[in-house]
Amino acid sequence: MVSYYPLLFKPVIKDYIWGGQRLAGMGRLLPESGKAAESWEISGHPDGMGTVINGIHAGKTLQALLNELGADLVGTRNQWALDRGKFPLLVKLLDADKRLSVQVHPNDAYALSHEGNELGKTEMWVVLQAEPDAAIIYGLERPLTSADLREAIRLGDLETCLHLVPIKVGDHICIPAGTLHALLEGAVVAEIQKNSNTTYRVYDWNRKGADGKPRPLHIEKALDVINYEQVGLGLKQAEIIEENAIWRRENLCSNRYFTTERIIAKKATRYSGVCDGSTLEIWGVLVGQASAAGQRLEAIQFCLLPAALGEFTVEMSANAVLLRAYTAEQG
Known about the structure:
By secondary structure, the chain is mainly beta. The protein has 2 domains: 12-225, Jelly Rolls; 239-326, Jelly Rolls (Sandwich), CATH 2.60.120. 12% of the residues lie in helices and 35% in strands. It contains 6 helices and 21 strands. The protein has helices at 62-69, 71-74, 79-82, 108-114, 146-154, 219-225; strands spanning 12-14, 38-42, 89-96, 102-104, 123-130, 135-140, 162-166, 172-175, 181-183, 187-194, 200-203, 239-243, 247-254, 259-265, 269-275, 281-287, 289-292, 295-298, 301-305, 310-316, 321-326. The chain has a 6-stranded antiparallel β-sheet, with no helix packed on it. The radius of gyration is 20 Å and the shape is globular.
């Protein structure tokens, strides 16, 4: 008999040139460099494969668990990922001590034709920490064609084409495939995304990598996939699902791959749900404490509830802030 329970994973730490030290304050072990850019919290990607650290599946990689459990792990709504042998989602923490490159991600069709069996990448961020002047690049500043953008890059004038949006703690940003974007310095975000590590860099602020050479750019591919209709984008308000004296439930982002909700507990309370085989659920605590299907979670910690888990409850402390991610649509 197969046993289903909340799964915890060992974070995979990534040391990129833009990382800082703030993830240490979230309980992540920094590498020898003393800086970390990303912590891959739940990952089935070969570039940073997560390993289960609790229960009878401890020691197994997420990919091995997917091979063993299939739809019982991810749900029937994620058949699109199962067909490619992929776990559907990836959860990260990002510490932007320095600004990230201006970049764009492809959709599934483009990734499949240009990057082997890699998935395309749609993602979203929730801002956990932010300096007073923190901001993101979010789409284009003015209407441009591919030829216009190519010429701006050639002339070294790309920065004038980029739309800057200030951010603060609690903001969320939805980033569909094709969105030109960059997380700038002074922010820590939680990221929920499709299970992909394909990024096309358009501009890297004329800096050099750890080897003293400029990091590679992917301008031709980027120009192929950028959505040129995304001009002057702004942040959207969360959609309120339910608000009462007990909690506030919000829909932050919803697409064919994942839906992300935020639950803000006004007092200690309980959420009752069911994993009925249609979708996995990922729960994360941003503030406070919670217990998901009996598994205690501290801030900042995430767990994976298998699709075949059945009925479950999430107990949360007063003033806790939680994220819930799942697949709401048939992919």
